[in-house]
Amino acid sequence: MSTEHNIAIDGTQLPCPNDWDFSPISEMCPEILIGIDCKKTNGNYEPIFQETRDGKFYGRSVLIDPDPETIGRFKRLYDHGLYMSSNFLTSDDSCGNLFARGFMSTASMMRPRICERIRRMLEECDLPEGFIIINSLGGGTGSGLTAALLNTLRIYYKNLVQLQVTLFPTPQATTVEPYNCALHEYKMNDNSCIMLIDNQALFNALTPMRRSSNGFEAVNNIIAQLVSNLTIGTRFKEISEGLISLRDLRFLLHPTKNLRYSSFSYSPFTSKKTYRYDKWYEHELTIDCFTEINQLINCPNIEKTPNLGTCMIYRGNLNYFKAKECAGNYLRQLNGGLQTGVNVCVSQKNTYHLDENNMPKAGNTACKLSTNLALKNIWEKTYNNYTTLLQKRAFLHWYENERMTSCDFDGAKEKLCILLDEYNFMNLKKRK
């Protein structure tokens, strides 16, 4: 997002080329890979960045990990001055992939420091709208510490929206991941709206690009694009139509108390070599967002299952009315002619990618967020794995050592049953 606002990775404002100068900014600042941008389209950076008196920019973010080695590695490799040093929060030891340790002992140690840091950050904001949280459900930090933290934030900031971009563990991960997912669902407040993705689906989606690299750069770039799209309408109001705020997203993607999980899809996944020969306009992007390969969560028949609520975010030189018509027509066809809730946002701000990711640097893109009834399948697998582990009492002693009781595990099982029953009820209602 710093690239979109013409901010360098060290937090300084990059020089803007003249209107008649079409040379990319990367030539003036070679170490920063960035496309052409002008002051007229720099947008409103204040929701994401804070500007100091000396013209330095810092991200409005707090990076949390109890493991000091993880934070240290991030600071060595990626922090060039865009983050405040006080916003890196760590502890003495990791959570050891245990929800119980993250929710109990680690949270009790780190919660005061985290809440104080967030309080100071919010005092520097004018009319904050909410929080965007990026976490993983497989580990102890992402499941346990996140649940404890968001429950606390819900008490102090009950009017602020909580949107989670959550990495869901694959069904093959059956060590302690089912415990962590079930306990997170049980202990979390029902106010948070959660958008699920998983690593395997991301790698499958990147297959058309014929990636030769084994790293996670391309995967992380896609996640960054998804998070950027959540606030694109707020940050670039002047060049966007059909503005969608965080409150709109929560209202659309959180239809009932328990059905608060939604899925992502992204289009196009194509390399630089083939992008110039393809035509990606409103119709093509809409159809591509509903194909199986573009879904960022591994869930059978998700592209054919009705949606309770859908949000389409387009970026590039596209027409708002054409995009809305294409999205509405396709969703009516998918839902058997029934009307469904759909919000459309079109921003003229192009999408930027780093050169090493083998993706087009700028162009027309689309992102779909939907509360899909097919997500029942992943929770059904989680429930089956959870009950199997619970019957064998596998790894339970690690959780019991952190003061978790059998009531917690029974409550998590009951909460999963309620969630699955609600999915079944909505499926029957849609068929009628």
From TrEMBL:
Domain Tubulin/FtsZ GTPase: 45-238
UniProt entry keywords in alphabetical sequence: GTP-binding, Microtubule, Nucleotide-binding
InterPro entries: Tub_FtsZ_C, Tubulin, Tubulin/FtsZ_GTPase_sf, Tubulin_C, Tubulin_CS, Tubulin_FtsZ_GTPase
One BP term from GO: microtubule-based process
Highest taxon in the source lineage: Eukaryota
A Gene Ontology molecular function term of the record: GTP binding
GO cellular component: microtubule
SUPFAM superfamilies: Tubulin C-terminal domain-like, Tubulin nucleotide-binding domain-like
Record flagged with keyword Nucleotide-binding: yes
Matching Pfam families: Tubulin (PF00091)
PROSITE patterns with a match to the protein in the record: TUBULIN
Keyword Nucleotide-binding: yes
SMART domains, sorted: Tubulin
Family in the record: Belongs to the tubulin family.
PANTHER family with a match to the protein in the record: TUBULIN
Protein name stated in the entry: Putative tubulin alpha 1 l
Native species: Rhodnius prolixus (Triatomid bug)
Lineage: Eukaryota, Metazoa, Ecdysozoa, Arthropoda, Hexapoda
